[in-house]
Amino acid sequence: MSETKHEKVDLLPVKNDYVFARLFGRRSHERVLVCLLNAILNGKPHIKDISLDPTEYKKTAQNGKSVRLDIAATSDDGTRLHIEMQCHNEGNIGDRASFCQARLREDELQEGQNYSSIPNIISIWICDESVTKRQSCCHEIVSMYKDNGVDPIEIASEKMRQFIIELSKLEATPKKFLNDMFSIWMMFIRDPNSIPPEFLAIDEVKEAMDELTVMSSDPMTRAEYLARQRELNDIRSGMSVKYEEGIEKGKAEGEKIGIEKGAQQAKIETAKNALVLGLSVEQVSTIRFSCA
């Protein structure tokens, strides 16, 4: 597909999570995802092949919480991978990443298996907005031993690794700390229209651009993107209450109403009992009811 055809199409933004998941999580285009992952992981590990996994993890308890991932995959060495495009900073990236990793780990260990059989889990969060106070655009989080005054800070385990990538800090990060393919892919995700023609000579980047062009030309895909974008705009403008906040607010209001109704019912029952005992209506009206 020629550069001219790319330029004529109004390309959908890859940093929209719906577009990102459709583009990189598409079957038969796994090598594009492999190339992106290798650019981020930089050889630790080097992925040769992947298989895409289900992205929905339903709650396991009645009052639990379901999880829907953008992309989930398993690499050729058994590493479980979770890749998320975060369009809006909700201030809880670390907590959400840890929760998703915990759900990925559920039921991994069978009866009789050694704990060392638990697969490595890597969670990658690509964020359109700044989500940390750190200066670089790429951060890796692992389990660490903290300084206790005797022993030094050191890595405790790399079984569960988290990567947080902030697209807004890409240009401010010295290039010597980033590999070339990482910079190219982050540039593509941030704005595919900014990709220099020479980068399209890379097979995987060209394949991603071709697929994005096809997606952008499809009316149904564009309609679904617009629906998702409206939802995100509502969240940014404050028109939508965050799910967790809405649940907590609803619980609090429900408890308040329940307490008020309970107190009122208790007053009524006390008044009835007083009348049965022979007190007059005038006497009952002078009783001071306690809600304690």
Which key phrases capture this entry?
single chain, 292 residues, alpha/beta, 16% strand
Question: Can you offer a commentary on this structure?
Answer:
The protein has 292 residues and is α/β, with parallel strands linked by helices. It folds into 2 domains: 3-240; 247-285, no CATH class. The chain has helices spanning 3-8, 17-24, 30-41, 93-105, 180-190, 203-217, 219-237, 243-276, 281-285, and strands at 50-52, 56-57, 67-68, 71-75, 80-86, 121-127, 138-145, 154-166. The protein has a 6-stranded mixed sheet, with helices on both faces. A two-stranded antiparallel ribbon has the order 2-3. α4 links the parallel β5 (80-86) and β6 (121-127). The longest helix is centred in the C-terminal third of the chain and has 34 residues, at 243-276.
Give helix and strand order, one letter per element, not per position: HHHEEEEEHEEEHHHHH
How are the strands ordered across the major sheet?
1-4-5-6-8-7
Residue fraction in strands: 15-25%
**What overall form do the CA principal axes indicate?**
globular
Please give the radius of gyration in angstroms.
27 Å
Helix content: 40-55%
Q: How far from one another are the termini? A: 76 Å
Mean pLDDT: 80
Summing up helix and strand content along with how strands pair, one would put the structural category as: alpha/beta
Instruction: Please give the number of β-strands.
Output: 8
Tell me the count of domains. Answer: 2
Number of helices: 9
Low-pLDDT residue spans: 1-6, 240-244
In this structure, how is the largest beta sheet organized? Answer: 6 strands, mixed
